[in-house]
């Protein structure tokens, strides 16, 4: 592996850029609970490890090179984001006033994990990232197996560190966000953002 410090820097820059994962984590942390945000993050991390394993095994290369496979995953991912966006907007119109310390539903954590997992797993751009970005840091003529795993785990660990800090920051301002009027605004914004990400993903073309 070459230029590992540069790899770390590039990973950090990519991780902090807002995307579908950040939108889902933000929504679930602010509108449900800190635990839901952490569960969403856990789902995202599990999906990243699957992408890492797929890159090592060469499955990501098939997705990247096959227009059909790329399109199938892309449209499934786009439909899922659109579904989450529309669902959030519908929830906004049906929301009733509630206490700031009201307990979340018992299924929220499971649902949050699934949302984080599927949002990341069904994004073919992540597979493209692993197959186009990671090889740039491989030493010439080296076996990619171990370096890919190391870089994938490193990226996942950095993602975890970023989201933990981000979630705890959001939790600190959640009392304000729990006001019914504020929640309606947040649901409207995050719902619209998820729909935009879904449309953007649907229009994405394979390289």
TrEMBL record:
Coiled coil feature spans: none
Domain of life: Bacteria
MF-aspect GO terms: amino acid transmembrane transporter activity
InterPro entries cross-referenced by the UniProt entry: LeuE-type (IPR001123)
Transmembrane segments: 6-26, 38-62, 68-86, 117-139, 145-169
Pfam family, one: LysE
Subcellular location: Cell membrane
Keyword Nucleus: no
This protein's record includes keyword Membrane: yes
Membrane topology value: Multi-pass membrane protein
Keywords: Cell membrane, Membrane, Transmembrane, Transmembrane helix
Primary location group: membrane
GO CC annotation: plasma membrane
Protein name per UniProt: LysE family translocator
Organism of this sequence: Metasolibacillus meyeri
